[in-house]
Specification:
The protein has helices spanning 2-5, 8-11, 14-17, 28-35, 54-63, 76-86, 99-110, 126-133, 156-162, 185-194, 253-262, 270-281, 283-306, 327-336, 360-375; strands at residues 41-42, 93-96, 116-120, 137-141, 167-173, 200-204, 229-234, 247-251, 310-311, 318-322, 339-340, 342-343, 352-356. The mean pLDDT is 96. It is built from 15 helices and 13 strands. The longest helix has 24 residues, at 283-306. Helix 6 packs parallel to helix 12. By secondary structure, it is of the alpha/beta class. The strands form three sheets. A seven-stranded mixed beta sheet has the order 2-8-7-6-5-3-4, sandwiched between helices. The chain is 40% helix and 15% strand. The chain has two domains: 24-51 and 284-375, Aspartate Aminotransferase, domain 1 (Alpha-Beta Complex); 54-281, 3-Layer(aba) Sandwich (Aspartate Aminotransferase, domain 2). It starts with a helix and ends with a helix. A hairpin with an 8-residue loop joins strand 12 and strand 13. The protein binds pyridoxal-5'-phosphate (PLP). Pyridoxal-5'-phosphate is lined by residues 46, 98-100, 124, 173, 177, 204, 206, 234, 236-237, 242, 247. Pyridoxal-5'-phosphate binds next to helix 7.
Length: 376
């Protein structure tokens, strides 16, 4: 009986006590179960609608033969392939259980009570979670105004101004999720130049492969210039391997050494390492995925705009669009029609919804369902 009287919440560390857990997109299986539907489409978590590449699937399957063995905790083959790809030393690569894991490693290595992490409003939801879990304070910087060329995107000048002597980490999502907005090379580089050398600058490039603005930067090329820079990438989006959980960070070797001290010894499975290695070599699959995304993102944007909806600029594989006060009802209505989107009110974007660019038939079905909901 004693256990019933204990207030476990009061026993938790202060950062965890007030933590709001991450809200993932609704899985297809949950929608089928809850609504009794059997034909549903998920456009809620920015996954690659083509599925994983054949080479990744084959490599993962073959690797299962050795599943009784612990994985290579140092991820030798994958780290070396990534180092070659980015022309860095393997010591600069930190593997993560998704890039999410790398974001948490940064927080665990550099944040604690009394320290601050700076990031933008409407930025990726994991930044506040890892900051708070480490007991540090989040400094959430107001984003660009709604009528800016990059509405709700990162305001780098305001972010620079928010850095104090307590700041130890700055998170920049480029492009940002859920808005889709991005930063061009010159302003981002100037921002990094202006940061104190003691502030770890995380540039999260989860959607790197999809960005097609010629002025969109590859921040990994700046690692020499900025020893405080951590660039994160993932195999969850364009590489189509979200379920396997593999991502990585690129940084100065001394920073990577610190991240590796807090990393779980076997944080990336052998199956994930093998699939990522194969996918890295499968540039045709990536090129096809990116081409499909470009074509379908344009098609979706047109379709949404022709319904009179505001659509934010996007360099990713998703679009954030405004449906107004009925956003919750429209989200629910779409669920009843078997279409899962992502509500973004928890990102301080009430009235907006986010849709992942799917296959042509999925996008068409979503547009039809949305038209019906808007008429309802
Ligand atoms: C999806 C996403 C990630 C990471 O996902 P992982 O599956 O953990 O690699 C990181 N940053 C942003 C902005 C994302 O949207």
């Amino acid at each position: 009986m004693l256990h019933k009287t204990i207030d476990f919440s009061s026993l938790a560390v202060s950062g965890v006590r007030a933590l709001q857990p991450y809200q993932p997109g609704k899985p297809e299986s949950a929608l089928k179960r809850e609504y009794g539907l059997d034909d549903v489409i998920k456009l809620a978590s920015n996954e690659n609608p083509m599925g994983p590449g054949t080479r990744a699937i084959e490599a993962a399957g073959a690797e299962l033969q050795g599943a009784h063995r612990y994985p290579d905790g140092a991820g030798f083959a994958l780290r070396h392939a990534l180092a070659e790809r980015h022309a860095v030393d393997p010591m600069q690569v930190t593997l993560g259980n998704g890039s999410n894991d790398v974001l948490a490693l940064v927080a665990n290595a550099f944040l604690e009570p009394g320290r601050e992490a700076v990031f933008s409003a409407h930025a990726f939801a994991v930044y506040p979670i890892v900051t708070q879990a480490a007991g540090a304070s989040a400094v959430v910087v107001p984003a660009n105004a709604p009528d800016h060329a990059m509405p709700f995107g990162h305001d780098l000048e305001a972010m620079a101004a928010a850095v104090s002597e307590r700041t130890r980490v700055v998170f920049v999502a480029n492009p940002n999720n859920p808005t889709g907005t991005w930063l061009q090379a010159d302003p981002l580089r100037a921002f990094l130049q202006g940061l104190p050398a003691e502030v770890i600058a995380v540039v999260d490039e989860a959607y790197f492969e999809y960005a097609d603005d010629p002025d969109y930067p590859d921040a990994s090329l700046w690692l020499q210039e900025f020893p405080n820079l951590v660039v994160t990438r993932t195999f969850s989006k364009a590489h189509g391997l979200a379920a396997l959980r593999v991502g990585y960070g690129l940084s100065h070797p001394a920073v990577a050494d610190l991240l590796n001290r807090v990393r779980q010894p076997f944080n990336v499975s052998s199956v994930a390492q093998a699939a990522a290695l194969a996918s890295l070599a499968d540039q045709d699959y990536i090129a096809q995925s990116v081409a499909l995304n470009r074509e379908q993102r344009d098609w979706l944007r047109q379709a949404l705009q022709s319904m009179g909806l505001q659509v934010l600029p996007s360099a990713g594989n998703f679009l954030c669009f405004r449906v107004g006060e009925r956003a919750d009802a429209i989200y629910e209505g779409l669920l009843r029609r078997g279409v899962i989107l992502r509500p973004v009110a928890n990102y301080a974007l009430p009235g907006f919804l986010r849709v992942t660019v799917g296959l042509p038939a999925e996008n068409a079905r979503f547009v039809e369902a949305l038209q019906a909901e808007l008429r309802a």
